[in-house]
Amino acid sequence: MSGHGTPQPVSARRAGPLTGTAEIPGDKSVSHRSLILGAMTVGETRISGLLEGDDVLATADAMRAFGAEVSDQGGGNWSVHGVGVGGFGEPEAVIDCGNAGTGVRLIMGAMATTAISTTFTGDASLRSRPMGRVTEPLAQFGTLSYGRTGGRLPMTVVGAANPTPVRFELPVPSAQVKSAVLLAGLNTPGETVVIEPEATRDHTERMLTAFGADLSIEKDGGARVITLKGQPEFTPQTIDVPRDPSSAAFPVAAALIVEGSDVLVPNIGMNPTRSGVFTTFQDMGADLTFENQRTEGGEPVADLRARFSPDMKGIEVPPARAASMIDEYPILSVVASFAEGRTVMRGVKELRVKECDRIDAMAQGLRAAGVTVAEGEDWWEVEGIGPRNVQGNARVEARLDHRIAMSFLILGMAAQKSVTVDDAGPIATSFPIFMDLMTRLGASLHKSNQ
Ligand code: S3P
C-alpha cells in the first residue's frame, strides 16, 4: 500500500502545450460507498467504473474481511455479494485502511451497530487523523471505541448489540461523519436523524435511497435534516460510478496554466455538492466550459473543456462554497499563483485535518516555489503573480498526501524551473493513472533521484 514503500521522487518541468482528452477514473467517494452498501445488501451488486486506487482497494479488502464476496471482474467491473444490513461477521485480523479517511470512517459507521468488534489501523497519515469526530456520535448508539490518545488509530470499535437511534447535529461540515452516522443508523431500529448546518457531498443519501432505504431530507433554515428509518430491506443495485470531479480538477488546472493548452475532460460527475472548484475557476476568468450537460444514473454529468487562460484574476472564494470544493483548495492555490492578484480562501479549517495539514503543506511548498502566501487557522491567501512568473525551482514534501503531490507536479508543469515532489507514491490512492495521463497530454514528468 502507498505510503509504506520506498519514496518515489518525481520532477515536473515546463514542456509544450497540453492537448487531447483526459479519461478520468471513477469517483472515490462513490466507489467506497458502492462497495460498502453492496456488502450490506443480500444478492449481487454490480459496479462498473470503480476507482481501482489503493484507498478503494483497501475498502474492498475490508468488506471481504466482514464476510462479503467482492470480486474484480476486469475492466473496472466489480461484483459484490453482500451479507445484508446487520450481517457483518467479525474480522479475524486488523483492518488496514491505508491512507483512506473516508474508508475507515464509513466502515466504522457500517459496523458500529452490529455486535462484533474490529480493530482498525492505517498508514502514518491516517494514524495521525482524528477519529473522535466519528466515534463520539457512534457512542450515542451504544458503540464503544478504544483508540490512542486524541482518538487516533489504531482503534478497536465494539459494535452496539442493542443500538438506540441517534439525533445528531454535525459540529463540523463532514460528509464522512454524516455518512458514518447514517450507516450506523441502518442496523438500528427507529429513526436516526442527522442535522447538517452546511450541505456536504450527498452521495450517501442518494445511494441509500437507491438501495431502498426510507430516507427523507427536510430544510430547516439553511440546515438539512436527514431522517433515516432503520432496518431497511435493501435491493442489490447496478452502479455506474461517475468520473471523479476531484481528480478532473488536476488536468483542468494544468490546462489553464500551461501555455497553449486545450484539454477535453469528458463525462465528469457535476453533483453540485462537488463541483465548486469549476465555478471558482470560471469566477477567476478561466476559459473553462461545460459541454454536453446531461444526467446519468441520477447524477449530473458534463464534458469539461479547459484552455490556457492567461488573464485569470485572484478572487475571494465564497466561504459558503467551501464544502463543495474542500479537496480542491490545494490545486486552486496553484492556479491562483498563476492568476493576477490575491486569492483569499476563508472558512477552510477542515483543510488542517486532511491527509496532512493542507494549508501548511501548500503554503510551505508555494513559498519555496517563489509565491507569497499568508495563513491563519481557518484561512489563507495566495498572491498571484501572473501566468509566466512563478519561479518553481523547488523540492517539496508530499506528506503522504496525493493531492499535495499532484498539485506541485502541476505547478512544475507551468513554472520557470522544475519542481520535484519527494514522494509521488500516494497519488496511487486516488488517481493511479495520473502520471501516464498527464504525460500523454504532453506533460514532462520524470522519476527523479534527487
Ligand atoms: C469524503 C468527504 C470529505 C473529503 C474526502 C471524501 C467522502 O471529507 O475530503 O476526500 O467521500 O465522504 P470530510 O467528510 O472529512 O470533509
Short description:
This protein folds into two domains: 10-26 and 243-447, Enolpyruvate transferase domain (UDP-n-acetylglucosamine1-carboxyvinyl-transferase, Chain, Alpha-beta prism), CATH 3.65.10.10; 28-230, Enolpyruvate transferase domain (UDP-n-acetylglucosamine1-carboxyvinyl-transferase, Chain), CATH 3.65.10.10.
Q: Your description of this structure?
A:
It contains 13 helices and 24 strands. Strand 4 and strand 5 (78-82) form a beta hairpin. The protein has helices at residues 28-39, 54-65, 101-111, 124-127, 132-141, 175-186, 203-211, 245-257, 276-283, 329-337, 358-368, 402-414, 434-441; strands at 10-13, 19-21, 43-48, 69-72, 78-82, 95-96, 117-121, 144-148, 152-158, 167-169, 191-196, 215-220, 223-229, 238-240, 262-269, 287-296, 299-307, 316-317, 340-346, 372-376, 379-385, 392-396, 417-421, 444-447. Helix 1 packs parallel to helix 3, helix 8 (245-257) packs parallel to helix 10 and helix 8 packs parallel to helix 12 (402-414). 55% of the residues are buried. The structure holds shikimate-3-phosphate.
Question: What is the strand and helix layout of this fold?
Answer:
Layout: E1 10-13, E2 19-21, H1 28-39, E3 43-48, H2 54-65, E4 69-72, E5 78-82, E6 95-96, H3 101-111, E7 117-121, H4 124-127, H5 132-141, E8 144-148, E9 152-158, E10 167-169, H6 175-186, E11 191-196, H7 203-211, E12 215-220, E13 223-229, E14 238-240, H8 245-257, E15 262-269, H9 276-283, E16 287-296, E17 299-307, E18 316-317, H10 329-337, E19 340-346, H11 358-368, E20 372-376, E21 379-385, E22 392-396, H12 402-414, E23 417-421, H13 434-441, E24 444-447
Parallel strand pairs: 2-15, 3-14, 6-7, 10-11, 18-19, 22-23
Antiparallel strand pairs: 1-23, 1-24, 3-5, 4-5, 7-9, 8-9, 11-13, 12-13, 15-17, 16-17, 19-21, 20-21
The structure holds shikimate-3-phosphate.
